[in-house]
Write the structure tokens for this entry.
Amino acid sequence: MCFSIPGKIKSKKGKNIFIEYDFGLKKVKNSLCPVKKGDWVLVQSDIIVKKIKADQAKEILSLIGLSN
């Protein structure tokens, strides 16, 4: 079973997508779904695999003891 922490799209520059987490930024180059700045996403193996709603992201972060 895999676990993914929700992150928020901070910016897009060319093929690079920067995702903001409590612990910093992560750069990915691949997305399986269309995304834009401000979207909440789940990333697995440096690939955005799913876009989620803000309330879902906040609930997950709350359940695992992180805030955003």
Remarks:
- The mean pLDDT is 91.
- The longest helix spans residues 54-63.
- Residues 5 and 64 are 9 Å apart (CA to CA).
- The two ends are 24 Å apart (CA to CA).
